[in-house]
Amino acid sequence: MDWEIRDDAPIYSQLVAQIKLGIAAGALSPGERLPSVRDLAAEAGVNPNTMQRALQELERQGLVYSQRTSGRFVTEETDVIENAKRSLADEQVRSFLDAMARLGYMRDDILRLLEARIREESGNGEL
Amino acid sequence: MANFECRALGKRYGHVQALENVDITVESGRVVGLLGPNGSGKTTLIKLANGLLTPDAGSISICGKAPGPETRAMVSYLPDRPMLPQWMRARELIKFYADFYADFDTQRALDMLGRLGVPADRRIRQMSKGTQEKVQLILVMSRRAKLYLLDEPIGGVDPATRDFILDTILRNFDGGSSIVISTHLISDVEKALDDVVFINNGHVMLQSSVDDIRERNGMSVDALFREVFKC
Amino acid sequence: MLSKLLKYEFKATGRVMLPVLIALLAVSGLLNLCGSVAEHTRSQIISLITGMLGFVYVMAILAIGVVALVAVIYRFYKNLLTDEGYLMFTLPVNVHGLVWAKLIAAVVWLVAAFADIVLSIFVLVAPLRLGWGAEFVQFMGQFFRELAAAGINGFEVAAFALELLLIVVLGIIGSCLVFYTAMSIGYSFANHKALLSVGFYFGIGFVTQVLGVSLLIGLGTALDGVEFNFVYTLRNALNLGHATLLGICLLELLYDGALYFGTTFMLKRRLNLP
Predict the structure, then answer these.
(1) Among B52, B122, C77, C135, which is most exposed with the fewest C-beta within 10 angstroms?
(2) Distance (Å) from the alpha carbon of B186 to chain A's nearest alpha carbon
(3) Average pLDDT, whole number, for chain C?
(4) How many CB atoms lie within 10 A of CB C37?
C-alpha cells in the first residue's frame, strides 16, 4: 500500500481512512492477513502506537478482526466491506456536491454536467 | 511509574538560565519529541537525564531512580556528536557494548551492521562521517533499554539516512520502553511521535499528543511549531 | 566492572606503549650485536651504524618517557574530557571505576617503562660480559650474607623493599593525579579549558610546595628544644628507618587522597563536556 499522510488531520484518522480505502478497493482482500503493527508502522513511517490505535478503530468498525495468536485479518464479511465502500462513495459524492454548490451550480446543471461527462468517457472507451 | 520524569528542574550556566521549572513525564511505550530551536535547552535536559550535568534545582528520575550508574544501565543515549573512539573497530565496539550493557543484543547489532554494508572489521576512523553516525545509532538501538534518549539523531543527514535512522528507531523499540527524540527538524520526525514537548529558552511551552494538536489546530505539529516560534 | 574498564584501558594504551617498549629492547639488542661485531672487525661502516644506533637508543629511552607521560595525560583527557566522555560517563559504572582504571594503567605502564629501560641496559651490556648473570647472583648473595652478619635478616630487607615500592607507587599515583585534578578542574569551565588546566597544574604544585615547607617549618619549630634520648642500636636505627619511610608513605597517601577526592568530585559534580 502507498501511504500518504497529510498535515491537516490527525495521523491516526488518516491511517484508518487509508486502510479502509485499501479494503474497500480490494487492495487488501477479504480474509487477508495484515502485516504486524510494527511492520505496518515502519512501512507507513509512523509510530507503532498510532498504527495500533488505527487498527483498533478498524476492529471496532468490524473491518478487521484479530486472532489472539495469529495476528490481524481483513474481515470476510462482504456486507461489512460493501458498507464501508458505500460510505466512502457517499463521502466522495457529498464532497463533490459541496464543491459544486460552492461554484454556484444547481442540481439540474450538476446532473447534466455529469451525464455529459459520463457519455464522453464511455464514448472514448468505445474507440 | 513513568520511565522518565522531571519535576521543577532547573539548570544554570553562570548567569545563563538554561532550564527553568521544567516538568516532563514520559510514560512507558511512548515516543516523545523534544522540540525547540537551537539553544532552547534540549541538549541540557538530555545531559541532565544522563547525569552528565548536575541539576541546580528540582529532580530527574528514570524509572523512579535518580541518574547514576544504575539508571545508565537502563538508558540508551545517543549524543549529538560522535562519541566512539576512532581507533576501535565496529566489531570491537559491539563487544564493548555487550561487555558493559546486559541488555545489548549482539546479533541485532551485527544484523543491522550487515544491512548497512559496513564491514565489522573496519575502524571508526576509516568510516565516513555519515557511516560513523549510523554505527553509533546501531549500537544505541541494539540495546533493549527502558529509555532511549536520542539527541538530534537526524541533524544534518541526507533523506535516505534520515529514513534509515527513523526506520531503525521505530523497528527496534518495544512496548515497555520509551523514546525521547530531541530535534529542531520536526516535519521529518512528526509521524514517528506520540507526544511532543515544545521547549524554548529553557521553558516548556506545550506538552501534547501529536494527534491532539492536529485535531485541535487543524495543522501539523511542524506548522504549529513555526507559528509558536515565529522568528 | 573495574576489570572490564581495565581491559579496554590496556587495549587502548597498549596499542601505543607496547610497540615502543619492544622497540627499545630491539634497538638495544641490535646495538650490542653491532657493538660486538665492530669490536672484532674494526669496519668503518659497522662503527658508523653502531654510533647511529647508540643515538637511536638514547632517543628511544627519551621517547619512552615522553610516550608514557603522554599516554597518562592524553589518555585521561581524550577518553574522559572530550567527545569520548559521552561514551565513558554514560556507562553503567561510577566515576571511581573510571579514575581507578586510568590510575592502574598509568602505574603499570610507568613501572613497565622503567623496567623496560633497565632491561634494555642489561641487554646492552650482557653479551659483552658473558657470565654477568652468575656474577650478579653471586654479588646479591654476598650482599645478603653481609647484611645477615650485621644482624639484618631477609624479613627486614623485604619490609624495606616493600616500603620503598609503596613510596614509588604512591608517588607515581600522586604525579598522575596532579594532572588529573588540574584537568578535571580546568575542563569544568566553559572556556580556556586547556589553559586553565595548565594554570591549575602549577597552582596545585605551588600549594603543595607551600604546604610542604610549612610542614617542615612547623615540625622544626615543634621539635626545637626537644631532647631526644636516642640510643644508637641497630634495632633503633632500623626502626627509625621504617618510621621515616612509613611517614613518607602516610604523607603521600594524604596527598594522593586529597587529589583523588578533587578529581572524582569534579568529574561527578562539575563535569562539563564540550
Answers:
(1) C135
(2) 12
(3) 89
(4) 15
Residues of chain B with Cβ-Cβ distance to C187 below 8 Å are: none
pTM for this entry:
0.88
3-state secondary structure of C52: helix
- The CA distance from B67 to C226, in Å, is 56
Q: What is the 3-state secondary structure (H, E, C) of C129-164?
A: HCCHHHHHHHHHHHHHHHHHHCCCCHHHHHHHHHHH
pLDDT in tens, B184-194: 888 888 888 99
| CB nearest A10 (choices: B166, B211, B222) | B211
Q: Which three cell numbers stand for residue C228?
A: 631526644
Contact call for C4 and B79, based on CB within 8 A: no
- Looking at the partner chain, which of B81, B83, B100 has a beta carbon nearest the beta carbon of C92? B100
**Cβ count near B123 (within 10 Å):** 15
Among candidates C8, C109, C121, which has minimal Cα distance to C67?
Answer: C109
Of B7-21, B190-204, C56-70, least confident by mean pLDDT is C56-70
Residue B18 clears pLDDT 90, i.e. is over it:
yes
Determine the distance from the C-alpha atom of residue B181 to the mean position of all C-alpha atoms in its chain, rounded to a whole number.
4
CA distance B58 to C121: 61
C33 band by pLDDT with thresholds 50, 70 and 90: confident
* C-alpha cell, C193: 579549558
Q: What is the pLDDT of residues C56-87, one digit of tens each?
A: 889 888 889 888 888 888 999 999 999 999 99
Q: What is the DSSP letter of A33?
A: B
> Across the interface, do B171 and A42 touch by the CB < 8 Å criterion?
yes
> pLDDT per residue over C36-64, tens digit each?
777 777 777 877 888 888 888 898 888 89
Q: What is the pLDDT of residue C244?
A: 92
Tens digits of residue pLDDT in B83-102: 999 999 999 999 999 999 99
Q: B220 vs A41: CB contact, 8 Å cut-off?
A: no
CB contact, 8 Å: C94 with chain B?
yes
pLDDT of residue C37: 78
Selected from 3.40.50.300, 1.25.10.10, 1.10.1060.10, 1.10.260.40, the CATH number assigned to the domain covering B4-228 reads 3.40.50.300
* Closest CA in chain B for residue C83: B83
Q: How far apart are CA C157 and CA C160, in angstroms?
A: 5
Q: Which chains touch B (3 or more CB pairs under 8 A)?
A: A, C
The answer to whether A8 contacts B220, with C-beta atoms less than 8 Å apart, is: yes
Would you say B131 and B118 are in contact if contact means Cβ atoms under 8 Å apart? yes
Calpha distance C34→C54 (Å, rounded): 10
Contacts of A40 in chain B (CB under 8 A): none
pLDDT of residue A127: 46
How would DSSP label each residue in B93-148?
HHHHHHHH-TTB-HHHHHHHHHHHT--TT-BGGGS-HHHHHHHHHHHHHTB--SEE
Which residues of A are less than 8 Å from B211 in CB distance? 10-13, 50
Distance (Å, rounded) from C-alpha A22 to C-alpha A84?
11
ipTM of the modeled complex: 0.94
Are the CB atoms for A47 and B170 separated by under 8 Å? yes
Neighbours of B166 (CB within 10 A): 20
- Verify whether the Cβ–Cβ distance B30 to A49 is below 8 Å: yes
